[in-house]
Amino acid sequence: MTAKSSACVVVFLASTCITSHALAQTGWSLLANYGYTVFAHDDYQQIIGKPVQAGEQSGGFTGANGVVNFGNAQWRAQLGEESALVTIGVQGKVGSFHLYTTADAQSYRSQDQATFYVVNSKAVAGVDLTLKDQVTFHSKKPGFKLITAKWVITNSSSTTSNAFGVVSPHGFDPNGNHDNAVGTGEAWFTVTGTGVPTAPAFTLPSGTQYTGTTPWAYNWTTRGGIQEPTIDHIDFDSPASIPVTFEVGLNSPNFLSWVFSAGASGRSDNFDNAGGGGSVGSGVSDFGHTIEWGGITSVIDETTGLPDTDWSIDSASGFDYAHPAEVPEPSSLVLAAIASITSLAMIRRKSA
User: Fold this and answer.
1) What is the DSSP code string of 252-291?
2) 302: closest CA among 249, 261, 264, 266?
3) pTM listed for this prediction
4) What is the pLDDT of residues 303-345, one digit of tens each?
5) Residue ranges of the domains in the chain?
6) Which of 179, 181, 191, 336 suits a disulfide with 279, CB 3.0-4.6 Å?
7) How do residues 138-176 score in pLDDT, each as one tens digit?
8) Eight-state DSSP code of residue 307
9) 223 — phi, psi (to 5°)?
10) By the 8 A CB rule, do 218 and 236 touch?
11) Integer Cα distance of 69 and 71 in angstroms
12) Rounded to an integer, what distance in angstroms lies between the CA atom of residue 209 and that of residue 67?
């Protein structure tokens, strides 16, 4: 059974869309969801009536034989020199996935003494891939078993961010006008589901703990503003593997479910009135190479505490969870997405 649903709303210069591409069969399913927001705001451009580019949505598809394939999709919002751009790619089959997102935002303003004009842009992109499967475990020894396995992440996967802004130690020029521009970029990667432990907690530059689902990889950068912050960059690389531990009963259905998420954001806020200038922010969550099932590494009999070496496992999807997944290379669609955003425009601060 295949299913596809889509919804897209454009309000002023903000474009937000959510689309699902799913493939489901009895006892298992593989579902890809992506969402994005692009926003470009310039009060002055709107006052003088310049046209607005509201963004657009391209199609995707769910392939045959249990494969989700959607890549190299881009959306943009632009008003004058304020722009926001996102790219999303996702591929997957049971046991092996590729996820990729980028988000870029930039804004610029020439010298302008009208302090009330707001100039900013924002881009946010995210993609989730959800795997649900039903497995049956068999063993000659009765009782519940404790399964230890892992998801493996290739060392070429990463989260990165970049930013550029204008710093003004006092925040205002001699005439009392705002005089700074801030760029911020962020990227993250999370895995949740059956037997996945909570990722290690970390502290944000504000001194507060990260809230929500703690990512397994995270990158954040900010530049510009009233003064450069003491901490302007955070980088937590993804681990080589993520452990999975769960309990199963024998000869009856056991349900497994995992959600893999990659996201990125960029934001540019421009208050640089006195001299003119701009800011950029970008994030890249590049898991466009393989996240793969690493196989079952141990089975422990919960009654005796001893290893069980005489067992087998069946799945509704037909995937062999006993062994590591075979690793396909990502298709040219996702590789094209990786190459699509390689740099941001350099924005030079003009002299007053």
Assistant:
1) SEEEEEEEEEEEEEEEEEE---SS-EEEEEEEEEEEEEEE
2) 249
3) 0.83
4) 999 999 999 999 999 999 999 987 655 554 344 444 443 333 3
5) 2-340
6) 181
7) 999 999 999 999 999 987 788 999 998 888 776 666 666
8) B
9) -145, 145
10) yes
11) 7
12) 37
